Amino acid sequence: MFIEKKTKYKIQKDFSTIELTEIKEGTNNFDNFIIFKNNNIIDIYDRRCDHAGGKILSTKNHHTCPYHNWKFSPETGRYNNGLEKKKLKFKITNKKIIIENKKFIPQLNFIKSKKSVSIEYINHAFLIIEGDGFKFATDPWALGPAFGLGWWLKNKTKRNWLKELQSCDFIYISHNHPDHLHQLSLSLLKKDKQIVVPNFKSNSVSKFLESMNFKNIKKIDFLKHFNFKKTDLNFMILKSGDFKDDSGLYFTAGNTSFLLAVDSNNLNSHNLPNIDLYAASFAGGASGFPLIFDNYSEKQKVKILSKNKLLFKTIRLKEIHLTSTKYFLPYAGSFLEKLDRNSYIKKNNQKNSVDDYIDINNKFKTLDINKNNIFEFFDGKLLSQKNIKYPVLNDLDEKKYEANFQNIYTKITKKSLNNYFLKSKFHDNLILFISLMNVDYTKSFFNLSINFTKKTTKVKFYKTEITKDILRKQYKKDSPNLLFISVRLESFINILINMDSWENLVIGFECKIFRLPNIYNAKFWHHFSNVYVKDKSQKKGIDCYSCERLNQRIFNQILNI
Question: What is the pLDDT of residue 537?
Answer without folding.
Answer: 46
